[in-house]
Amino acid sequence: MRKYEDLFLAFWIVHIREFRVKKHLSQERFAEKLCLNTRNYQKLERGVHRPSVITLLLFLHQLSDQELLSFIRTFGKLVE
Length: 80
What we know:
- The protein has five helices and no strands.
- Helices cover 78% and strands 0% of the residues.
- The two termini are 14 Å apart.
- It has helices spanning 2-22, 27-33, 38-46, 53-62, 65-79.
């Protein structure tokens, strides 16, 4: 299981940063959307901390249906 957790963390770091930049959001603004303080968000984006289930759900809520499917399918392909 640890292998998949590490794989997800690497995947998460890339995708959360890409999404934030694509939506032209500052770290501060995106932290607000995820109900986090800026410092904790920065740690998530650098991979210092893993996202909680709640943070992951709030992130997924920010995605369009197409982005959500892409996020899930891309990670699924990495696992295969």
